């Protein structure tokens, strides 16, 4: 089991106070970091198959490809066994998933709702999306992170053919066992009710796991929630004294964020940012790269991940305070999306996170200021153009 620890920079009391009164660290949880797509999905699938009472899923993307259909078959089977199954999917993120797919699992006894649907009466609200990735099983086990239910996250590629030798996108999730799972279930219930789902009647008492770690839910489903999430992020950046290691799929920092990162370097903090070498949203990547020169000049180290697309969203501060979830460091995540993350205080877990970050660095290229200044003019032009639309990407 992982043991929790404190450090003069970060402690449970101050983090709770900064984030929100009433939202607390939940003690006594077993945590397992999932950062290899195929292994992560196997753990998720095995856990779903073992469900006895209830399954709750909330996902931005739930496709009807091989991965989505396999998960759907498991959910239908569990529903036939008397397990209560609830699925909440984002309307925009799962737009390509056909209506008949949802009708099929509904007929099998699975309860299904769409979050953030398009409305003619308020079309501009369609930019707000439910970007969370959340699974709760029997109130005891839970999962969150960056993974969606789709082939590319697992390593299955494309055109209806399953190629198991392929490697999925580089993403990170976390599997949790313990009392935090019932807390996440209550968060899911609020979303479910908000999107017109029927009442869920379930409760189970979950005892703390000896020597488990404290976990705090960092979920945002409103403007107020997103403000609290940003407040905690900036507090973490400003409080760090030794290191800040950020991994994100989409990086379009505000002026304030750039200033805080620069101030961190001046305090002697080792600031490193791992970003995709190739993005699934090139426009967003170009918009973010417009700020590289300023950050590199300040002493911040930037890395481009090589190989498959980097989709992970993690932060590690001073090797002891970690955040894993769905929120990117961009305007869409921090200002518009419903996001789901968890924070963990543990030196042992933090070391694992740092080790994974360093392993990713081995598969990355270090972006140097000299090389960046000498990049082709057309690349600079694209960056400046897409930076004009950074709040819309």
Q: Can you describe this structure?
A:
This protein is of the alpha+beta class. Helix content is about 35%, strand content about 20%. It folds into two domains: about 30-210, 2-Layer Sandwich (Endonuclease, Chain A); about 215-390, Endonuclease Chain A (Endonuclease, Chain A, 2-Layer Sandwich), CATH 3.30.870. It contains 14 helices and 15 strands. The chain has a 15-stranded mixed beta sheet, sandwiched between helices. The radius of gyration is 20 Å and the shape is globular.
- Total E-strand runs: 15
Count up the helices.
Answer: 14
CATH superfamily of the largest domain: Endonuclease Chain A
Helix content: 25-40%
Q: Which series of helices and strands comes N to C?
A: HEHEHEHEEEHEHEHEHEHHEEEHEHEHH
Profile the largest sheet: 15 strands, mixed
The percent range for strand residues is 15-25%
Give structural attributes.
393 residues, alpha+beta, Endonuclease, Chain A, 2 domains, 15-stranded mixed β-sheet, 14 helices, 22% strand
